[in-house]
Specification:
The protein is α/β, with parallel strands linked by helices and 442 residues long. It has three domains: 65 residues, Nucleic acid-binding proteins (OB fold (Dihydrolipoamide Acetyltransferase, E2P)); 199 residues, Vaccinia Virus protein VP39 (Rossmann fold); 114 residues, OB fold (Dihydrolipoamide Acetyltransferase, E2P) (Beta Barrel), CATH 2.40.50.1070. The chain is 24% helix and 29% strand. It contains ten helices and 22 strands. Helix 9 links the parallel strand 19 and strand 20. Helix 2 packs across helix 10. It starts with a helix and ends with a strand.
Length: 442
């Protein structure tokens, strides 16, 4: 019995939606108790059905919309509401951005106790077909008698039954059915666990996570499909170090940042930004905010494959990039060599530990850029403060940890939060990407 079926005997409840959660659910109150309603938007008058009842809050889904929001739009994807890949397709794109901007400001105020002096205009790009990196689940479902490829259902461990995906790059998003049918014909169809997508400026690569060696007939089917569809295929029988080309035998993915005349090579499982249009705007904004001068020594923490480091090296005297993943450091060094950049050095280090003893730390830094994971950069802030770095640009994929760290920088280490804003890296999702500039008080 599904959660909704459990409460099917209860009549719909009519409410007015008061707000939107960070996950994109409407917020209402029934007899003083909070209810989170899937599919509802702020200001709407709706009726909902319960899907869960808990001690401190309840959950529901829209049954009928009596008074729609002026920002409500028709979702483009036929799977919206079932698939967990998107949460906000029913909300107009500009309203999505305003909502994300409010999330950022609310977190700054409530978590960090700070407010940016200037709110940056949001960075916007394509709303559809923008996603160039993704991991799709693969599962043969006995009850359906066929194989599924896609994202998981909303708040469920099960794969959504998708025929297409409107946010994935069209080279993959329009081929979901073909890919499912192809993998379903393999001898080892029940031993393929995952399909990783990586699209560069010209090519689309797919990595099949195969839990057993493929038969020769399976290899032949896959190669034939790849040739027909002009796709690049890799196999991954184990960890990332086991990724090997299937077809063609020699290939390299790459993308360019034309404003800085740099090109990045990357592997299909390397971390790169999912939205290349926003990435270009983001790097340009980060460099402009940091304002590196020809005499500056710049520190780039969580540098990855050099996405920010190499553009900064075009402007600064020297850039030191530091990253926890040693394979990314190798790739960053290769990219520096690829572009003839000799004033950037890269090092692998645990960024949660004291870095003061590292040789590259000595000599100090004028400016720093941070692009940490969702957990933020709290462990490195004291070290940056000791260096008396004049300007810090912080790129964040989690507004809550950015707000926490902003409070620390401002209240404990003497920085001002000069500018901050959102970047629409993941349209139609509740994910909030943001950027902030901190300047040391004199």
């Amino acid at each position: 019995m599904s959660r909704a079926q459990k409460f099917a005997h209860l009549p719909p409840v009519r409410v007015t939606i008061e707000g939107l959660t960070h996950e994109g659910r409407g917020v209402a109150r029934v007899e003083g108790k909070t209810v989170f309603v899937d599919g509802a938007l702020p200001g709407e008058e709706i009726s909902f059905r319960y899907t869960a009842r808990k001690k401190s809050f309840d959950e529901g889904e829209v049954a009928e919309i009596h008074q729609p929001s002026p920002d409500r739009v028709t979702p483009r994807c036929p799977h919206f509401g079932l698939c967990g890949g998107c949460a906000l397709q029913h909300l107009a794109p500009m309203a999505q951005i305003r909502s994300k901007q409010q999330v950022l400001l609310d977190d700054f105020q409530h978590i960090g106790g700070v407010t940016p002096a200037t709110l940056l205009p949001p960075l916007e790009g394509l709303h559809w077909g923008y996603r160039r990196k993704a991991r799709l689940g693969v599962k043969y479902v006995i009850k359906k008698g066929r194989l599924l490829v896609g994202f998981r259902e909303r708040r469920s461990p099960y794969l959504a039954d998708l025929s297409r995906c409107e946010v994935l790059h069209p080279s993959v998003g329009e081929r979901i059915t073909q890919l499912a049918e192809l993998i379903g014909t393999l001898d080892l169809h029940d031993r393929i666990a995952q399909l990783e997508v990586a699209v560069d400026d010209q090519h689309t690569a797919l990595v099949l996570r195969n839990l057993a060696p493929l038969t020769e007939s399976d290899r032949a089917r896959l190669i034939e499909f790849a040739q027909q569809q002009q796709l690049w295929l890799y196999l991954q029988p184990g960890g990332n170090d086991t990724v090997t080309p299937l077809w063609p035998e020699q290939m390299e993915l790459s993308y360019r940042l034309g404003a800085f005349e740099v090109e990045f090579g990357f592997g299909p499982t390397d971390f790169t930004q999912v939205n290349y249009e926003i990435n270009q705007q983001m790097v340009e904004r980060a460099v402009a905010l940091l304002d590196p001068q020809p005499t500056d020594r710049v520190l780039d923490l969580f540098c990855g494959i050099g996405n920010f480091s190499l553009p900064l090296a075009r402007r600064a005297a020297e850039v030191v990039g530091v990253e926890g993943a040693s394979e990314s450091v190798v790739r960053a060094r290769q990219n520096a060599e690829r572009n003839g950049i000799t004033n950037a050095q890269f090092h692998a280090a645990d960024l949660t530990t004291d870095l003061a003893a590292a040789p590259w730390w000595r000599g100090g830094f004028d400016k720093a850029l941070l692009d940490p994971p969702r957990s933020g950069a709290q462990e490195t802030l004291e070290q940056l403060a000791k260096l008396k770095v004049g300007r810090i640009v912080y790129v964040s994929c989690n507004p809550a940890t950015l707000a926490r760290d902003a409070g620390i920088l401002v209240k404990e280490y003497g920085y001002r939060l000069e500018q901050a804003g959102v970047m629409d890296m993941f349209p139609h999702t509740a994910h909030v990407e943001s950027i902030a500039l901190f300047v040391k008080r004199r």
